[in-house]
Design a protein that fits this description.
Chains A, B: One of its GO terms (cellular component) is cytosol. Chains A, B: This is Diphosphomevalonate decarboxylase. Chain A is α+β, with helices and mostly antiparallel strands. Chain A has ten helices and 16 strands. Chain A has two domains: about 180 residues, Ribosomal Protein S5, domain 2 (2-Layer Sandwich); about 180 residues, Alpha-Beta Plaits (2-Layer Sandwich), CATH 3.30.70. Helices cover about 35% and strands about 20% of the residues of chain A. In chain A, the strands form four sheets. In chain A, strands 8-7-9-6-1-16 form a six-stranded mixed sheet, covered by helices on one side. In chain A, helix 1 packs parallel to helix 2, helix 2 packs across helix 3 and helix 5 packs antiparallel against helix 6. The longest helix of chain A has 21 residues.
């Protein structure tokens, strides 16, 4: 009689926030980018996806994915590409060693949960695909080299390849048509520069903007300035950013981070029709960061914005008072998400122009406090029970 | 006994709104630009500067300028450069013909008035310098070739050189170090395409942004994308715009106008620190124009933004219902500046998304309706009386 055993593996994976931005694909099917990018992996204590991958001959024949408690469609080409690649690698192992159970032939039951509100508008696809790929790779007992797995995760969501590492991570664009050299590499582990912190100001957008998937291709197709970003601006920023991380040079890290965010949003504005992700609240956050740095007399904070109005503000632990204090003074009474360390800081921040503070107070709905953290990790916390039934919470 | 006669000349000069933008100087002293530009001259019935230039041996020795009723400083290098150039040309005439009165040696009394509120935030320096140069040139009986005078006005304010012509005007950047080939030329007179209209949505800015004079040089110095705009984007847009005007092709005129505005504001956003002239109200105007074009099934309107949040919307007279009607439906009840033709249009516009309409209604303080018009013109309306005393109103 057939093997009714339920096989399981659970992994957590982190969110990453790029400081050199990914924007533009040279091959949309394989998610091959027009330029390399670099990101900071954020701590999973604050932001993580937990995914349990399970399979069993006893499961109904269709693969399934449950995301935050609801069934999720996995028929999409990107998810299918990831599962196909993972199954092929498992099948190769099984062919080489007939004693292995034929997991590659069993239906998959995937269950995934984020520990942060989707409403936060943080790209959860990176953590999601990284966790999915890593969990299935563990289930299948595949060689778990993150760079190798990044080739698979990249096909699910480009930025997901960077979430397979902790610390400071580069996605090398590569040059091959098959994408085998377009993968993530560790630039430096979190332990190299553990003082890096991130304060996320969650800005409520009037309505969802253009999706990054379609937005970036509109930019590639229509922006007259984009060529220059890809050919000269990003390569120079990659070099400068790797040097800044290597030397733990925050002033340099901050300038490149801010210039990169500006360059990215400039090419969005140069898209036809123009794409606007930042709003007046986002711009007020830019001015606030500039004011904090000016009052501090040195660079203590850096802003960056992804495909949405949220501000991510990088700073070093030792500058928490000036940076977090400033925003806590404005937002502490009206928004959630503050850690204990922030609640000890009233009055420690930089006094901001009243109109500026008003715009920020009126537009920020919550904050998230985090910092540089580790990559995906195996866990004994399962979202599928030993008998294969979902964990009910 | 000395000649106590008061010599006078009066001129009006128009505002112009660029559709290919001037942003960046290669020589800040001579106002030599990094790229050519092209503008539409707006009708002086709606927007004009009236300037009377007078001189007399009986005046106190210092040149004076009265602007909208208040004394204005003319010691600035730009104003001085214009007056020096004009006096030199007059002195040459006087040297060649000793019978001419020695106006070049007499103090100047200049009085200037705009027929539009400075609060409108429309760059009035272009009309101001064009009127000043043209009025003094008339006072001095200089050869009044506008292209020749544009070399002088350019030194007062770059865009002023384009206000010496009506209709559709190009400012050729030129290549000479002395700037003698950096001047305005007529692309087509207003009569070539008289149907061109402009609706200005005056947006109240929270506070004055970076001045264009300093802003454009910050962009030249810090934007990594600016090179590309100057080297490739603008030259292509100049060619396309001249063809669009020549062929009276509004769809093409509109696309180049909108792409140009986007490209210009993109390089501002790419400046470090970033320069933001457009705000959420400006962006709502962009979306409104896109909606009007989409509902019309063809391009009937084009937006452009200068160094501030005001939207200038170009359209053709025959599309007044769709374009003006749409904004009158939103703003007619709450803002001034509408002409009779607009007041006949309630309900004739395109229904806009409610949130979008709300942002526009909340942020537009007044409108100005105008259209393509003629260049500077001599007038018998004087702001200085025959006895040299200012006209009191």
């Amino acid at each position: 009689m057939a093997d009714k055993k339920v096989y399981r593996a659970s992994t957590t994976a982190p969110v990453n926030i790029a400081v050199v931005k990914y924007w533009g694909k040279r091959d949309p099917k394989l998610n091959l980018p027009t330029n390399s990018s670099l990101s900071v992996t954020l701590s999973q204590d604050d932001l993580r996806t937990l995914t349990t991958a399970s399979c069993s001959a006893a499961f109904p024949p269709e693969d399934t994915l449950t995301l935050n408690g609801s069934p999720s469609d996995i028929s999409g080409a990107r998810t299918q590409a990831c599962l196909r690649e993972l199954r092929a690698r498992r099948a190769a192992l099984e062919a080489a060693d007939p004693s292995l159970p034929k997991l590659s032939e069993m239906p998959l039951r995937l269950v995934s949960e984020n520990n942060f509100p989707t409403a936060a508008g943080l790209a959860s696809s990176a953590a999601g695909f990284a966790a999915l790929v890593r969990a299935v790779a563990d289930l299948y007992a595949l060689a778990a080299d993150p760079t190798e797995l990044s080739l698979i995760a990249r096909q699910g969501s480009g930025s997901a390849c960077r979430s397979l590492f902790g610390g400071y991570v580069a996605w090398r664009m590569g040059g091959r048509a098959d994408g085998l050299d377009s993968r993530a590499e560790l630039v430096a582990p979190a332990s190299h520069w553990p003082q890096m912190r991130a304060l996320v100001l969650v800005v409520s957008a009037a309505k969802k903007g253009v999706s990054s998937t379609s937005g970036m291709q509109q930019t590639v197709a229509t922006s007259g300035l984009f060529k220059q970003r890809v050919a000269e601006v990003v390569p120079a920023n990659m070099d400068a950013m790797e040097a800044a991380v290597r030397d733990r040079d925050f002033a340099r890290f901050a300038e490149v981070t801010m210039r990169e965010s500006n360059s990215f949003h400039a090419t969005c504005a140069d898209t036809y029709p123009p794409i606007f992700y930042m709003n007046d609240v986002s711009r007020a956050a830019v001015r606030a960061v500039e004011a904090v740095n000016e009052k501090a007399g040195r660079t203590v904070a850096a802003y960056t914005f992804d495909a949405g109005p949220n501000a991510v503000i990088y700073y070093l632990e030792q500058d928490t008072e000036a940076v977090v204090g400033t925003f806590y003074d404005i937002l502490g009474a009206t928004t959630d998400g503050w850690k204990q360390e922030a609640k000890a800081l009233p009055g420690k921040g930089v006094p901001l122009d009243e109109a500026l503070a008003g715009v920020i107070k009126g537009g920020v709905s919550r904050v998230i406090m985090s910092g540089v953290g580790e990559g995906p990790a195996k866990t004994e916390e399962y979202l599928v029970q030993e008998d294969g039934s979902p964990v009910v919470r």
